[in-house]
Design goal:
The protein has 253 residues and is of the alpha/beta class. The chain is built from nine helices and eight strands.
């Protein structure tokens, strides 16, 4: 938990992304954590079940446990004198963070989403493709149909060094961000990275935002120039994304 110098105050809960995306995101999360602490906000970033220094193995993890971990972390932070007033979700962390927000004792004042995953089924397909690509480079031949069948049969699959259980895969495939958004998130700031000067969000994101706004949620969106740090080979820093995030969370928490 990163704390500012004040003896007590408000905290920001960070919901991290999935598998290797978390490791690639650590630099950006460190930068935003430092900026928020400088503005008087505590930052709490838990290692969810089966990740980092937490108990268990990744193969034991599932979406329900991760959501429960986030909610439990918020309760712990509050007990330390730092009630969670805001959320920063990153990629799949937006899905789990949105679920956890509904379990908190009080609504958040504001949330920031970085490049949200809107469709868990599509995300799982992209993740499984990492295994297919690795098999092809090693001279093997696996198909998406085969991998899906093995999961359906109850087999554990290793993908990019992570053992994915059929339970986790099934839960992830059933997630849709539009169903998880609620007023518990407070004012939502939706930030996506845009390569090559693109000024608009993806069509999937725009559709999700429209649905949320029609349901009465406050959603502001913006495209920020930059490379996808969660999948880049080299460490990527995007100062503008850090500043916009700190401005949003610091102003309303």
């Amino acid at each position: 938990m990163r704390q500012p110098r004040a003896p007590q105050g408000r905290a920001v809960l960070i919901a991290a992304p999935f598998a290797e995306e978390m490791n690639k995101s650590r630099r950006m999360l460190t930068l935003v954590g430092r900026e928020l602490a400088a503005r008087g906000l505590a930052v709490v970033l838990p290692d969810l079940t089966g990740t980092g220094d937490s108990d268990g193995e990744f193969r034991d993890a599932d979406c329900e446990a991760w959501t429960a971990d986030l909610a439990a972390t918020a309760r712990w932070s509050s007990a330390q004198g730092w009630p969670v007033a805001a959320l920063l979700g990153v990629r799949t962390g937006c899905l789990f963070g949105a679920q956890a927000a509904r379990e908190l004792s009080a609504p958040l004042t504001t949330s920031v989403f970085w490049q949200p995953v809107t469709d868990g089924e599509r995300f799982l397909t992209q993740f499984l493709r990492l295994r297919i690509a690795a098999a092809a480079m090693a001279g093997g031949n696996e198909s998406m149909t085969q991998l899906r069948a093995r999961l359906s049969a109850g087999e554990m699959l290793e993908v990019a060094g992570y053992e994915v259980s059929p339970r986790l895969a099934g839960q992830l495939a059933g997630l849709r961000l539009v169903r998880e958004l609620s007023g518990a998130l407070g004012a939502l700031h939706w930030l996506e990275l845009a390569r090559g000067g693109a000024a608009s969000l993806s069509e999937a994101s725009q559709a999700c935002i429209r649905a949320a706004q029609q349901a009465g949620l406050s959603v502001a969106s913006r495209a920020v120039p930059g490379e996808p740090f969660w999948s880049a080979t080299e460490i990527v820093e995007i100062p503008q994304l850090v500043t916009l995030t700190a401005d949003a969370l610091g102003a309303q928490s």
